[in-house]
Specification:
The chain is an alpha/beta fold. The chain has a single domain, classed as 3-Layer(aba) Sandwich (Rossmann fold). It has 7 helices and 11 strands. Strands 2-3-4-1-5-11-6 form a 7-stranded mixed beta sheet, with helices on both faces. Strands 8-7-9-10 form a 4-stranded mixed beta sheet, with helices on both faces. Strand 9, helix 5 and strand 10 form a beta-alpha-beta unit. Helix 1 packs parallel to helix 7 and helix 2 runs parallel beside helix 6. It starts with 8 loop residues before the first strand and ends in a 7-residue tail after the last helix. The protein binds S-adenosyl-L-homocysteine. S-adenosyl-L-homocysteine binds next to strand 5, strand 10, strand 11 and helix 7.
């Protein structure tokens, strides 16, 4: 692996559809795969005198779909840290929200805390390890500047939620449900890189409509909102570094 100078901000986005408005808006140029012969792709530019690299998880070679979920999130993040040496990681993406906790489609969240709702190990010591609660510290000023809400984002390997997942999401008082953030948070913590998690609600977990229907209907609007919040974040003087 070639050694590169430090990157100021690494943006990690699972879906190409979520990344495209950011790539277009900031004129990020493709710089090839994050690691040779692996699917994750990198794009780069300088934004307001900051070096910015955006990575997407890329397409699965067998199933030809975007590599969503915690496994690609963790492996891609670790590879990107080793190559780009970021000062700050920002995970950007869509999420489920919770109307029972006041959530609505289109809400932006800058998560304050991350956890996993579908990792359960009822053995002393491993219980908390599996739950994987981590913090994503940042100032109230940054959240206000982005027009974002706070709260906990919980991650799991599934787009749907079983009754047990739902009970844990309620116990955690989750405001967002996604498939990547907590996995990225553990990698960022191990490598001691500060992390921000910016999510936009495409669907409501506790609404009778099927998650995938709401997700597909609201995806485009959410990605545009994420792109404008990302533009503000990249130029912000309130970053946690
Ligand atoms: N079917 C979609 C892709 C999967 S949706 C498509 O064809 O484009 C799952 C992605 O959106 C994941 O990256 C996840 O982080 C996010 N997401 C949105 N709503 C979610 C929810 N309710 N639960 C979990 N992840 C969600």
């Amino acid at each position: 692996m070639t050694h590169s100078p430090a990157t100021d901000i690494l943006l990690q986005v699972a879906l190409r559809a979520e990344a495209q408005p950011i790539i277009d808006g900031e004129a990020l140029r493709p710089i090839g795969p994050v690691v040779a012969h692996c699917p994750a792709q990198a794009f780069a530019n300088s934004v307001a005198n900051r070096s910015v690299v955006l990575i997407t998880h890329g397409s699965d070679p067998l199933h030809k779909c975007d590599r969503i979920g915690p496994i690609a999130a963790a492996t891609t993040c670790a590879a990107a840290i080793a190559r780009f040496h970021p000062r700050l990681i920002v995970n950007i993406g869509t999420c489920g929200g919770f109307q029972s906790r006041g959530g609505a489609i289109g809400d932006l969240h800058l998560a304050q805390r991350l956890a996993f709702h579908d990792q359960r190990v009822p053995i002393a010591g491993f219980r908390e390890f599996a739950r994987g609660e981590t913090d994503a510290p940042h100032s109230d000023a940054l959240r206000a500047e982005l027009g974002a809400l706070g709260g906990l984002c919980s991650t799991g390997g599934s787009l749907d939620a079983t009754p047990q997942d739902r009970a844990i999401l309620d116990e955690l008082e989750a405001r967002c449900k996604d498939m990547e953030a907590a996995a990225i948070a553990l990698v960022a913590r191990d490598w001691q890189v500060p992390l921000l998690v910016l999510k936009c609600v495409t669907d409501l977990v506790d609404n009778p409509e099927a998650v995938q229907d709401a997700f597909l209907r609201n995806l485009r609007h959410a990605t545009m909102q994420l792109a404008s919040a990302t533009a503000a974040l990249l130029r912000s003087n309130n970053l946690p570094w």
